[in-house]
Design brief:
single chain, alpha/beta, eight-stranded mixed beta sheet, seven-stranded mixed beta sheet, about 20% strand, elongated, NAD+ synthase activity, NAD, NAD/GMP_synthase, ligase
């Protein structure tokens, strides 16, 4: 047996906080060394924070990362654990996103990332140079390039995030060159379904390359990106470790590297591919490192988890359904996004929102409350709920169209959460603003339209929230959802306003499903009180969002088919027939055309909306996943 203990760390790094980030790494490094970890893997760009974007063009920012890495090396010199951690390194005219190898107080090597993503939320090729096979550079006395490393426990390879997502990444040639352990340093943002995808992809790579993969992921939120952390160790396709997500810390497991060697000898296809590699390509050079690593004499052979065996998994069925797991992930991601935005900016003293008694603002309040709990990690129980509630102010601002049902629902949930609740009517201001609008239109001018009257109410509320926020130093949360944002069912200067948008990338049907899930989890009466009301903005008499737009399930299907699948309106109409076979095809076609028209006409609103939390592959955020021109014509859509 050749036992090795591998640790994967999730670190909540803040962009630019190089000293604080390294302090966090040192604390975890010390803890892992005390736990007899042989090899400790930290996330991508953990020193400088991710995604730093154009900030890496400041030379001082890049140099500060090198200095802090040197400090990490000095302060961990007494530890025998081998460390791998991510940062930006400049070499002449290149900037590389690298994994740094540190051991015994020395920076031993930098290995650059080769696959630079420039899609969805990623822009790395804009600022970074790619590593290439055979790269051999000098980064001020430290090797920078393509290399594998031999320690007394085995052969180690390093790669960064996207490198593992391609089957043709550097892992293949490094494993054919002898690497037994591949350390993947990642800053992989949360998005719907990503956990299962990561798990399957890592298992596939480990099996295809007959190696042990140690995958460490960043945790925490920067801007609208939420990193869910966690990590994996997978040996030759066999899962050995899956770390807890949405939490800073580390997890470790023991693997027997002799098993990897045996698996390679048994896998005839792998050996055939290895022969072809030797004939056609140059092996990756190996650097032998002779300094003694952590004592492995106390490590024990990895036994199956309790309740399982070498031949059978656990008999316990999953407690949650996949739907419940995803909804809980959304809740955790949204709360972490708000909490870190509040904490890392450092400019806010409390949190506030306009609470309408409707579904969107209710979910935003529930997320804000959970975020406030995350900001009090040392409390629990009733004390935690009270502390979180005391950070939040909710304002119900009724006009003549507001109902008793929504007011009672808003008051109920604030009582459930111990949140400050204030009723501030806008009726008088509504009348004054309509009179001012008539004055602007001039004598004999037109009467303000019904749409204008609705927007006036929303803008009064938005202005009041900004005025309160400016004075109280509060983080003003915008409460609109993705479906209504997509169709412009929102008011510029009104309910589109806020300093941070919480659910702007969450479709309306998911908002409702998440509220139902949270009601099941927490039992707050205020959730049911809101769900029992009619979904609408209450800016006109008897207003219903579905009546004015279309049924929410149809709207969200159009959003997916048009925005994510990129179907033309006529194709959306055809697809809707399959999704909703019991609905009138003519009506479905009208809804598809209406969606496409309003979607295109509303892009000018998106670019004025606040930064939003990233939750999936489709974001209505022009700087993130879906980048569309504001000015465009729709002749291409055809009939």
């Amino acid at each position: 047996m050749r036992l090795v203990k591998i640790g994967v760390a999730s670190v909540n790094a803040t962009i630019g906080a190089v000293r604080s980030n390294v302090d966090r790494c040192i604390r975890l490094a010390t803890a892992m060394a005390e736990d007899d970890v042989t090899l400790a893997v930290f996330p991508e760009q953990v020193v400088g924070g991710y995604a730093a974007e154009d900030l890496v063009q400041w030379q001082a920012f890049v140099e500060s990362q090198r200095r802090e890495l040197e400090r990490f090396a000095v302060e961990t010199a007494r530890l025998r654990t081998v460390f791998v951690l991510g940062l930006t390194v400049g070499v002449d005219g290149d900037l590389f996103n690298v994994g740094a190898l540190v051991h015994g107080g020395k920076i031993l090597a930098f290995v650059p990332k080769e696959k630079l993503p420039t899609y969805n939320v990623f822009y790395e090729a804009r600022v970074f140079s790619r590593g290439v096979p055979g790269l051999n550079l000098d980064a001020r006395g430290v090797f920078c390039g393509d290399r594998i490393f031999q320690f007394d426990f085995g052969l180690l390879a390093i790669e960064v995030c996207e490198d593992i997502w391609s089957p043709d990444g550097p892992m293949r040639r490094r494993c054919y060159s002898g690497a037994e352990i591949v350390c993947n340093l990642s800053a992989s943002p949360f998005r719907a379904g990503v956990v299962g995808t990561r798990r399957e992809m890592i298992a596939t790579r480990a099996a295809d390359n007959q190696c042990t993969i140690a995958y460490a992921n960043l945790v925490g939120a920067n801007d609208g990106l939420v990193f869910d952390g966690g990590g994996f160790v997978n040996q030759n396709g066999r899962p050995m470790l899956e770390a807890t997500r949405f939490r800073e810390g580390y997890a470790a497991t023991v693997v027997d590297l002799d098993r990897t060697i045996r698996s390679r000898r048994e896998a005839s296809t792998w050996r055939s591919d290895l022969e072809a590699f030797r004939r056609e390509q140059t092996p990756v050079p190996v650097t032998a490192l002779h300094e003694k690593t952590a004592d492995r004499s106390k490590l024990r052979y990895p036994a199956p988890p309790p309740g399982t065996s070498f031949f059978l998994p656990s008999a316990n069925l999953p407690v949650k359904t996949p739907r419940e797991e995803l909804l809980d992930d959304f809740y955790d991601a949204l709360a972490l996004g708000v909490a870190d935005y509040y904490r890392k900016i450092g400019a806010f003293r409390r949190i506030g929102l306009a609470l309408s008694g409707g579904r969107d603002s209710l979910l935003t309040l529930l997320v804000a409350h959970r975020a406030a709990e995350l900001l009090h990690p040392d409390l629990e129980g009733a004390a935690l709920r009270e502390a979180a509630g005391s950070m939040i102010s909710a304002f119900y601002m009724p006009s003549r169209y507001s109902s008793d049902a929504t007011q009672n629902a808003a008051a109920r949930i604030c009582a459930d959460l111990s949140v400050s609740f204030m009723i501030v009517p806008i009726e008088d201001a509504f009348v004054r603003e309509l009179d001012a609008t008539r004055t602007l239109l001039g004598p004999g001018g037109p009467e303000p339209t019904e749409l204008t009257k609705q927007n006036v109410q929303a803008r009064i509320r938005g202005q009041r929230m900004w005025n309160w926020s400016n004075t109280s130093g509060a983080l003003f949360l915008q409460t609109g959802n993705m479906s209504e944002k997509a169709l412009g069912y929102t008011t510029v200067g009104g309910d589109l306003e806020g300093a941070f948008s919480v659910i702007a990338n969450l479709p309306k049907t998911v908002v409702i499903a998440l509220l139902e899930r949270l009601e099941k989890r927490f039992g707050y009466p205020g959730i049911r009180a809101t769900l029992d009301t009619t979904a609408g903005p209450e800016l006109a008499a008897n207003q219903s969002g579905e009546a004015e737009l279309m049924p929410f399930e149809v709207l969200d299907a159009c959003l997916y088919l048009y925005g994510a699948e990129k179907l033309a309106p006529n194709e959306v109409a055809l697809a809707l027939r399959s999704v909703f076979p019991d609905r009138d095809p003519v009506q479905l076609a009208l809804w598809a055309e209406k969606f496409a028209r309003l979607f295109t006409q509303s892009i000018f609103k998106w670019v004025q909306s606040p930064l939003a939390i990233h939750l999936g592959s489709l974001d209505l955020d022009r700087e993130r996943a879906l980048q569309l021109p504001v000015v465009q014509r729709t002749e291409w859509k055809g009939g």
